[in-house]
Design brief:
Chain A: Its EC number is 6.3.5.3. The complex is a heterodimer of chains A (81) and B (220). In chain A, 35% of the residues lie in helices and 27% in strands. Chain A has helices spanning 16-27, 51-66, and strands spanning 2-9, 40-45, 72-79. Chain A has a three-stranded antiparallel β-sheet, covered by helices on one side. Chain A is elongated. The relative contact order of chain A is 0.35. Chain B has five helices and eleven strands, in the order E-H-E-E-H-E-H-E-E-E-E-H-E-E-E-H. The mean pLDDT of chain B is 97. Classes of the chains: A alpha+beta (81), B alpha/beta (220). The interface between A and B is medium-sized, with 11 and 21 residues.
Chain lengths: 81, 220
């Protein structure tokens, strides 16, 4: 199974990269872009088949390493595949 | 006084730190590999050096902060061990939870490398006692992720408790309140983005960093 971990900056934390992306899109004629937030996706291949138990472990991974919760939020998507 | 410098994969200021410590203590510091699990007995001051540990993968300092030796240093710092982190070392200390806040991408997205003017906010700390309060010093900076951030409450507490020891006079990275260096609640763990260890010899272009080392070494 797989876990997709999305890590991004918390609301209220200035994201200079996102701001630059939004401005660049505006310059390219995409005036409807009001803001952009840049984050990252970490894709984990996991052994086992218990999605619920695996997700609890992935939460632990996020808290211990994958996200810095001082500035970042994370969201987990589990896939059986 | 026995001192130590921790070496991580892709540390690159470990030698600068070692030269500074040897010059000021007259004794070679121990160079300790990050896989070690325990600091040797008798080490009184530890420097986390600058560099790009683990290629800044994931987040600057994140992977290094989880290495075995850091867990031992963290535990000992809670019992008073003196620790200083410069540049990547500062990032490692925040990632390890030994100092509050985080170092984010510079506000203008540029890598900044230049001599930087700083103000010593006060001299009532273990790391600044040899400086005159409000004096100006010049340390080099060289970083991409030096934008100090902490939530309002944390910044308020740092300010109120006098834990901001250095401030930029011309903020190069967007750090909140121009914060360049902070100390922990116990006053024994210090981190800053600029490099005092690269300002200890006239050939460096200045020697303003000497008093920082003298300040902390004198307390040991």
């Amino acid at each position: 199974m797989k876990a997709l971990v999305y890590v991004g900056l918390k609301p209220g934390v200035l994201d200079p990269q996102g701001r630059t992306i939004a401005r660049s899109l505006n310059d390219l004629g995409f005036g409807e872009v009001e803001s952009a937030l840049q984050g990252k996706v970490i894709e984990l291949d996991l052994t086992g088949d218990d999605l619920t138990a695996a997700e609890a472990r992935v939460v632990e991974m996020c808290e211990k390493l994958l996200a810095n919760t001082v500035i970042e939020n994370y969201r987990i998507e589990m896939r059986a595949e | 006084m026995q001192t130590a410098v921790i070496r991580f994969p892709a540390s690159n200021c470990d030698r600068d730190a070692a030269v500074a410590l040897e010059k000021l203590t007259g004794r070679k510091p121990l160079i300790i590999w990050h896989r070690e699990t325990e600091l040797p007995a008798g080490v009184g001051f530890v420097v986390m050096p600058g560099g790009f540990s683990y290629g800044d993968y994931l987040r600057s300092g994140a992977i290094a902060s989880r290495s075995p030796i850091v867990q031992d240093i963290k535990a000992k710092s809670e019992r008073g061990l003196a620790v200083a982190g410069f540049c990547n070392g500062f990032q490692i200390l925040t990632e390890a939870g030994m100092l509050p806040g985080a170092l984010m991408r510079n506000k203008n997205l540029k890598f900044v490398c230049r001599p930087e003017k700083l103000t010593v906010t006060h001299s009532n700390s273990k790391f600044t006692s040899k400086y005159e309060a409000k004096s100006e010093v010049v340390f080099p900076v060289a970083h991409h992720d030096g934008n100090y951030f902490a939530d309002k409450e944390t910044v308020g507490r740092l300010e109120k408790e006098g834990r901001v020891l250095f401030r930029y006079t011309d903020n190069p990275n967007g750090s909140v309140n121009d914060i360049a260096g902070i100390v922990n609640e116990g006053g024994n763990v210090f981190g800053m983005m600029p490099h005092p260890e690269r300002a200890i010899d006239p050939l460096h272009g200045g020697t303003d960093g000497i008093d920082l080392f003298k300040s902390i070494l004198e307390t040991l």
